[in-house]
Amino acid sequence: MGATFLTAEWRWLAMLNYRIDPSVLRPLAPAGTELDSWHGETMVSVVGFRFLNTRLLGLPIPFHRNFDEVNLRFYVRREVAGKVRRGVVFVREVVPRFAIATVARWTYNEPYLACPMRSEQGPGGARYAWRHDKRWHTLAVEVTGEPQPLVAGSEAEFITEHYWGYTRQRDGGTVEYEVRHPPWRVWSAQSARLECDVRGLYGQPFEEALTAEPCSAFLAEGSAIEVLSARRI
Fold it and tell me: Considering only CA atoms, which of 75, 68, 177, 66 is closest in space to residue 112?
């Protein structure tokens, strides 16, 4: 594809997954992609995780190497030369650094929002919180035992094994980028909760899905990752 744009570690990925009417997502799917599904179910995920040891074009950025992110994403696919590329599209990405959000919005039209954030991670789970519109919002999972390898064909494999990103551009075009990382081990969550103003953060069309109980929740160990340079499709 291209040169390495970003390297980092993604750790303690808390993933809450919800079924959603595909009509909510179709208008948001970038040109050249189609919605992906698992056993006929269209899904969105709210994901909180730690960005660690971040380098941009090989260079560490002072005060911007380690931070939290919480995003809302959905799943798409694109066929290239007879092979399917399974990817994600972000509806909203929350980070604590204004500079990160600004660069991502202007460079790739990624839907970033800068908010104060805090988090806790440990053997029992992970919790991410962010302050928006004068209130704190929370994403949390609790787990027990040891993480397990992904099972082929499982929902956890579907959620975690998407290695492409797609972003709609201001002119209606689409950029595509590849994300490289090994398969992650995951815990199935014993409990999970999302406490947030869904309408205020993500819009009214997502309210019904995200105020219901998640259909599944996982905590992934994570790993080192590599994001390649984006290109238009």
Answer: 68
Q: Which residues face 164 on adjacent strands?
A: 87, 178
Helix (H, G, I), strand (E, B) or coil at 131: strand
Strands 216-228 and 164-168: unpaired
DSSP 163: -
Q: Which of 38-42, 51-55, 197-201, 213-217 has the lowest mean pLDDT?
A: 51-55
According to DSSP, residue 185 is labeled: P
CA distance 173 to 185: 35
Give dist(CA 205, CA 97) in Å, integer: 27
Amino acid at 67: F
Pairing of strands 174-180, 186-188: unpaired
Find the radius of gyration of the CA atoms of the chain. 17
The reported pTM is 0.91
The pLDDT tens digits for 57-86 are 665 675 577 899 999 999 999 999 999 999
As a whole number of angstroms, the distance between CA 145 and CA 179 comes to 29
Tally of CB atoms within 10 A around 169: 14
Domains and CATH numbers, the chain: 4-232 (2.40.400.10)
Find out whether 95 and 114 touch, Cβ atoms under 8 Å: yes
Tokens representing 77 are: 């696919």
Region label for 207, one of left (φ > 0), alpha (ψ between -120 and 50) or beta (otherwise): alpha
Q: Which of 158, 187, 8 is nearest to 87 (CA)?
A: 158
